[in-house]
């Protein structure tokens, strides 16, 4: 059975039954159909949240197919529930664009999925749409002001960094000229579209503490400059009230269920290469308020997702994970050992051994945060016994907790031993994490500390553009923000071909972006695509729906 | 109190209570929060639908502010319920774009509104978003194919008529160039965006009989031509399955309530100048299945909305209204009598008298359909007694049913006398309507019949482009489609400055568009804007939300 078939083989429980299990009164639920509900923000209890156990799932450097972090997250969550812990999975919302591209759905896999899988992968409760509209309303206000006769702010169209957003894999929108067609069409200028998940509105949603904070962050969005060089903020266009109004439902986390009928809260889905890559702070806190354990994940490898989870999200929200689960797969380690993607299903102990330094690197850099780490080997049917033993021994020999994770094939039952190790780790964790840098450090210093401690780089270089932007960032008063590194997920370094555990490399910061509303500085290392394209054979062509509403081709 | 304050002064009933009143089991509802629900299509009962009474609300030629058709529709619906009739209001969904432009909300007014007003005017149940995504997925597939190496259909980018859609007043998107930025960005070409309500996907939704029909219509969308001149359909890109999948919830009508706690079904919202301008066929049939009366409306004046309601929608769906309510306002008639917009609140019997021929024209052209007409004078506090008497006498003197409609100030109570006249009319209506043209007529003949019978034009001229397109339309086999006239709503003619009752004018068809999926031919008479812009002071700037979620500035 494929993922969609497995998902459809389990009858979901009415969402009020799921909610009841975690103590939510049905009256509190805002239903979206029978199996989805929005949760009001007053369910957050800061004191309870501080007492609960936050478990972060991250991964080694992934192959293009991904290493099953979401699957492990959901499986582990169901495993913890089987072990008697009140655990809630808190994860990101999938982006619609890639569903019709190459990737298919993103709601876990096999017997570790969240359902209703089709809805979650399609429009869900409309959060992405609301984000897109808030983003694009600001765009419309900008272009309207640029052509305004009576209320012109003097925005220099050449400096406008704010792009429109669309949740679609559509490469033709990467670079566009808008405002053509004569006077009727406004003032022509070059701009483009980001996929919604890569927008600052998404990043802001995930950083916000409440509706008021969301609105204030919107007002502080840095759009571009006036002709006189002074900065223009969204607040200068009075955009924040309408933007926040558009987000009045989207700010509320969404409740669904896992295939094991346990609670899963899904909210926000920022990219992990260009943004912070984790679900909303509000969703995490809500999970911690309603359960004793929250299992959550951060996008891509630990160099991207986990680093940002600690230094940006946890610091801002006052959170500290009690344990980190590092997902490794035998196939990815063989890839880092030099095998091609096509060869990964063939047993190859030598390649696996050669790839282990990638795992080792992630273990080392994670140790800098001072939080216990458990390795989860996400098993595939193509793994050999010998390969599995090798990786388990490798970890145990250096005293690292390790368990096989069989969530795909067995759901929560396949994650019980992983769950036991996680509970042990969490119970013995007594202190808060150690950040990689201080907010008071200069932007340059922050980047160097991440590059050295997390990537193992031997140095950092700044382009001349980046150097002059650094001055501007300090001048605009954004120097105290944390940094949100934008780099390839394919390598620990900033060069995607350097797989395994590269050493002796330098990180090159080509330029900076400013996310003044989300409150971080984005140092750009390498080519980062914020609008994907469709492949030669788009997945959309296989997606179908029958006359009675049965969907096929989503997987 | 403004509309938002009035709407907020009434506590809505839980939507299951509203549903219960019209015999819908709670189990059948798909909740969207507490006060909105989607209705499954199996609630449609074709036989019951044929027996119920369909009441169409249309209007004289409107001023830019609109003459309150939706307000009359909702008020009349509540009035009919007060008179003991099981009546359901079936109306269009408002477009989000204009809410932030100049217009504010569009969910009725005063004490004749549908609630929750904010939700209905913002994202509602996400139908517009789904339409936009289905539209834009097709766009992405087109541009992906144009740059495809292995599966290129040979689409000539210069001929692609299909545009992207966005529900936003954003003039800078009217004309764009996409695909810039080198190889990475696809093949550059000129294109643009329509506001979502003006998209063919919206038109198709409103014409579809079921999910299968929707999908088949998507497959038949005419996109443009190949370099060899042959037509390319959406089906050639295998787009229809994914497009229909995106629409699986959007195809279901939405249930909300009026301020009088009666049922209102809201579904679909196509433009009335460029598309058919009425809610979905599915929603109308669902209303007729669940109630004995359905009060529905068609956009703009009767020359646009009502003509299309009869000749396109009713013909295709096998519907026939039992009565037509023609909404007139004293202010609009004074406008047609030559007064400026600013002078309309001043009593002016002479101007009113001078404007009456506009009303007379709509009465005459509506009589061609052979369905009884009731005039509803939608009263404003600025009307004088003398003015009201004049218009009532004018109608009564020629035997036309007429009533004052006080829905804004008094809700259903203010529409009881109108309701009584409507019931009388419906009860005596025994035959189906007479269409203006036959489907077998040539496209040219259809246009001439509408121009003569409905507009009172003395002739029709075709540009040379239009003439050559006519040949192409017949060649492509689309000649049997009904026509969906695109012309200004500001005049009965195609020249917006010809207010009142113009005579001796000629209609000029400049060009044609083909909506092969919606199944109509769009003759374009005059400049039709499919993407509005924002005004100098966008309404968005006044919209705000407080920390506890109270919205202000929507009206």
Automatic annotation (TrEMBL), chains A, B:
<dbReference type="InterPro" id="IPR020628">
    <property type="entry name" value="Formate_THF_ligase_CS"/>
</dbReference>
<keyword id="KW-0067">ATP-binding</keyword>
<dbReference type="GO" id="GO:0004329">
    <property type="term" value="F:formate-tetrahydrofolate ligase activity"/>
</dbReference>
<feature type="binding site">
    <location>
        <begin position="63"/>
        <end position="70"/>
    </location>
    <ligand>
        <name>ATP</name>
    </ligand>
</feature>
<dbReference type="InterPro" id="IPR000559">
    <property type="entry name" value="Formate_THF_ligase"/>
</dbReference>
<keyword id="KW-0554">One-carbon metabolism</keyword>
<dbReference type="GO" id="GO:0005524">
    <property type="term" value="F:ATP binding"/>
</dbReference>
<comment type="pathway">
    <text>One-carbon metabolism; tetrahydrofolate interconversion.</text>
</comment>
<keyword id="KW-0436">Ligase</keyword>
<dbReference type="GO" id="GO:0035999">
    <property type="term" value="P:tetrahydrofolate interconversion"/>
</dbReference>
<dbReference type="Pfam" id="PF01268">
    <property type="entry name" value="FTHFS"/>
</dbReference>
<dbReference type="InterPro" id="IPR027417">
    <property type="entry name" value="P-loop_NTPase"/>
</dbReference>
<protein>
    <recommendedName>
        <fullName>Formate--tetrahydrofolate ligase</fullName>
        <ecNumber>6.3.4.3</ecNumber>
    </recommendedName>
</protein>
<keyword id="KW-0547">Nucleotide-binding</keyword>
<comment type="similarity">
    <text>Belongs to the formate--tetrahydrofolate ligase family.</text>
</comment>
């Amino acid at each position: 059975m494929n993922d969609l078939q497995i998902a459809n083989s389990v009858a979901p429980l009415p969402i009020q039954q799921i909610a009841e299990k975690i103590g939510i009164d049905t009256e509190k639920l805002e239903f979206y159909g029978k199996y989805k509900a929005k949760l009001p923000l007053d369910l957050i209890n800061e004191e309870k949240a501080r007492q609960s156990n936050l478990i972060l799932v991250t991964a080694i450097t992934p192959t293009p197919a991904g290493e099953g972090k979401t699957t492990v997250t959901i499986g582990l969550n169901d495993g913890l529930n089987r072990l008697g812990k009140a655990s809630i999975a808190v994860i990101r919302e999938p982006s619609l664009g890639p569903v019709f591209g190459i990737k298919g759905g993103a709601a876990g896999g096999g017997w570790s999925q969240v359902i209703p899988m089709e809805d979650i992968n399609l429009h869900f409760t409309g959060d992405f749409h609301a984000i897109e509209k808030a983003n694009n309303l600001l765009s419309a206000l900008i272009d309207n002001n640029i052509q305004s006769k009576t209320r012109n702010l003097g925005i220099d169209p050449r400096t406008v960094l704010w792009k429109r957003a669309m949740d679609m894999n559509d490469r033709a929108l990467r670079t566009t000229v808008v405002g053509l067609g004569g006077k009727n069409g406004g003032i022509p200028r070059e701009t483009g579209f980001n996929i919604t998940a890569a927008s600052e509105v998404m990043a802001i949603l995930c950083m916000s503490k409440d509706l008021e904070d969301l609105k204030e962050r919107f007002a502080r969005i840095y759009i571009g400059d006036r002709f006189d060089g002074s900065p223009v903020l969204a607040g200068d266009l009075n955009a924040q009230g309408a933007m926040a109004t558009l987000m009045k439902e989207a700010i509320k986390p969404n409740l669904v269920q896992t295939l094991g009928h346990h609670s899963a809260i899904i909210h926000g889905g920022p990219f992990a290469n260009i943004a912070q890559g984790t679900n909303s702070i509000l969703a995490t806190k809500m999970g911690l308020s309603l359960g004793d354990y929250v299992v959550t994940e951060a996008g891509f490898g630990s160099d991207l997702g986990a680093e940002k989870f600690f230094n940006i999200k946890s610091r801002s929200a006052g959170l500290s994970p009690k344990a980190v689960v590092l997902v490794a797969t035998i196939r990815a380690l063989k890839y880092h050992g030099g095998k091609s993607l096509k060869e990964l299903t063939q047993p190859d102990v030598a390649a696996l051994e050669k790839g282990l330094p990638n795992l080792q690197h992630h273990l080392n850099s994670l140790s800098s945060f001072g939080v216990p780490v458990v390795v989860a080997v996400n098993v595939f049917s193509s793994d050999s016994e010998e390969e599995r033993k090798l990786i388990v021994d490798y970890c145990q020999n250096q005293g690292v907790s390790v368990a096989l994770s069989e969530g795909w094939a067995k759901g929560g039952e396949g994650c019980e031993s992983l769950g036991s190790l996680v509970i042990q780790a969490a119970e013995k964790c007594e202190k808060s994490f150690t950040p990689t840098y201080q907010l008071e450090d200069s932007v340059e210093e922050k980047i160097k500390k991440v590059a050295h401690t997390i990537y193992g780089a031997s140095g950092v270089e700044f382009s001349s553009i980046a150097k002059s932007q650094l001055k501007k960032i300090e001048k605009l008063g954004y120097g105290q923000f944390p940094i949100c590194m934008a780099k390839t997920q394919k390598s620990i370094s900033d060069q995607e071909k350097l797989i395994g555990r590269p050493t002796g490399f330098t990180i090159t910061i080509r330029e900076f972006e400013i996310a003044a509303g989300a409150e971080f500085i984005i140092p750009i290392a390498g080519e980062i695509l914020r609008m994907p394209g469709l492949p030669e054979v788009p997945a959309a062509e296989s997606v179908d729906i029958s006359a009675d509403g049965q969907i096929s081709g989503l997987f």
